[in-house]
From TrEMBL:
PROSITE patterns from the UniProt entry: MFS
Main localisation: membrane
Name this protein carries in UniProt: MOT6 protein
A cellular component term, taken from the record's GO annotations: basolateral plasma membrane
Species for this entry: Pitta sordida
Residue ranges constituting the Major facilitator superfamily (MFS) profile domain according to the UniProt record: 20-447
Molecular function terms, GO-annotated: monocarboxylic acid transmembrane transporter activity
């Protein structure tokens, strides 16, 4: 076993060492340029609303479309990753993102922004971001929790820098030239993709329930290397609709794995209200009399605090005492995020809004650092890309309709307080649903394990059956037990 372990840590396996840290740096920059930029589009909200004489609901559509495509493009991203590898997918995403923003600088109507910023830039950001997350999952094993938390600090950096840069460029050059410059910046995703060089074949034993060689096949597909002829034959046979859905959308996992089912539904419901403060906080502050510079600074405050809190959250959640309990930390963070919205309802003074941003940032740090780690906890890494595809597709529907519907409510009532009422409702209810559901599943699992205790007591019957299964002690537990015990 020592020789196998040594070979697994050799030069052919760069996991948790060497170039893996360069990949982590690339993932940080990717998340800052993709998720970071998409989360601060509220800075452009007022300028675009005045430019095209659009309502709150109409203006919010380009933001919500971008968010929905960014998340909902997961299955297409999974296909590209499996066929061409993470390097190609990330670089393609960078090209699309840059093209979308450059094209948006020539738009003559708000509906054209739906296509350029919403669809093209959103799809490019999806490819770059999700392929980067997938590559990170394969480059890190031992330090996976820390790597995810460190990568998510890229979002914090984006939160901090994008609003300040965007507000400055808006004042100096206008929104059209700003979008043109942003397009050039997003092209740097191609550089990050170039860093994610082929990882090669991973000499690891397959997980329980997985197909032999599935890990090695995933690694070769990840790197973009040409798979062997037997692998090509296997993939050409998967032509039915059900098999495609199983491979890229993980409906089989959704139907069989209760934890994945609860987590996916809970996060999907949560996203209905999670994006609302990001879209409407700056317009709400400006509407309440706050200067535009200070209003943009609010988003930067959220990002700046995230830079320090997310790594701490990642380190704490990675401790073994939280193994199997990260979902409760995640639910607590969602609950705090929902409760923090009531601060905005109390007052729109700048000092009060700063307090709101501090508390919201702490809650968001927990959500950002744990959202993908919890997903990795409830599904096997061999199916993570597919599970992420379904996870993000379902999210995209609520991200798409949440901001426009809330914007319509604001247009009717002319009261921005409904943004925060709505956000709190969805966040709090999602947190309670996930926390209580996982608690019930854990209790059910403990009762199931307790019912098996008598079978472990020594008796003649048990001793007579033990030799019939000589590998029982050496084999890991079945897939369902492995998933539910984490």
């Amino acid at each position: 076993m020592s020789q196998g372990g040594a070979s697994g840590r050799g030069a052919a396996n760069p996991q948790d060492r060497g170039w893996a840290w360069m990949v982590l740096l690339a993932a940080v920059v990717l998340q800052g340029m993709t998720l970071g930029f998409s989360s601060c589009l509220g800075v452009f909200f007022t300028d675009l609303q005045h430019e095209f004489q659009a309502s709150n609901s109409e203006t919010s559509w380009f933001v919500s479309i971008m968010g929905a495509v960014l998340h909902g493009g997961g299955p297409l991203c999974s296909i590209l990753v499996k066929q061409f590898g993470c390097r190609f997918t990330v670089m393609l995403g960078g090209l699309l993102s840059g093209l979308g923003m450059v094209s948006s600088s020539f738009c003559q109507s708000i509906s054209q922004l739906y296509i350029t910023v919403g669809f093209i830039t959103g799809l490019g950001s999806c490819f770059s971001f999700q392929a980067g997350v997938t590559a990170l999952g394969y480059y890190f094993v031992r330090w996976q929790t820390l790597a995810n938390a460190m990568a998510s600090t890229g979002v914090s950096l984006g939160f901090t820098l994008w609003p300040l840069l965007s507000q400055y460029l808006l004042e100096e050059m206008g929104w059209r030239n700003t979008f043109l410059i942003v397009g050039g910046i997003l092209l740097n995703c191609c550089v990050c993709g170039a860093i994610m060089r082929p990882i090669g074949s991973l000499p690891q034993a397959p997980k329980p329930g997985g197909e032999p060689g599935s890990r090695a096949e995933e690694a070769e597909l990840l790197s973009g290397a040409s798979p062997p002829h037997s692998v090509l034959q296997k993939h050409t046979k998967r032509t039915t609709c059900f098999q495609v859905l199983r491979e890229y959308l993980a409906f089989d996992i959704f139907c069989q794995n209760k934890r994945y089912q609860v987590y996916t539904v809970g996060v999907t419901w949560m996203m209905m209200g999670f994006a609302l403060p990001h879209v409407y906080l700056v317009p709400y502050a400006i509407h309440s009399g706050v200067d535009e510079h200070r209003a943009a600074l609010l988003i930067s405050v959220i990002g700046f605090i995230n830079i320090f809190i997310r790594p701490i959250t990642g380190l704490l959640s990675g401790h073994r005492v939280f193994t199997g309990r990260r979902i409760y930390l995640f639910s607590l963070a969602v609950l705090l995020c929902g409760l923090s919205n009531f601060i905005c309802i109390i007052s729109a003074e700048f000092s009060v809004l700063i307090l709101y941003c501090v508390i919201l940032s702490i809650a968001m740090s927990g959500i950002g650092a744990l959202v993908f780690q919890v997903l990795m906890d409830v599904v096997e890494m061999d199916r993570f890309s597919s599970a992420l595809g379904l996870f993000t597709v379902l999210e995209s529907f609520t991200l798409l309709i949440g901001p426009p519907l809330t914007g319509l409510l604001v247009d009717i009532t002319n009261d921005f307080h409904y943004v925060f009422y709505t956000s709190s409702f969805f966040l709090i209810s999602a947190a309670l649903f996930m926390g209580l559901s996982f608690c019930a599943l854990d209790k059910k699992n403990k009762l199931r394990e307790a019912s098996k205790v008598p079978l472990d007591n020594p008796s003649g019957y048990q001793h007579s059956e033990m030799p019939t299964d000589p590998q029982a002690d050496s084999q890991p537990p079945p897939v369902i037990m492995y998933v539910t015990s984490i």
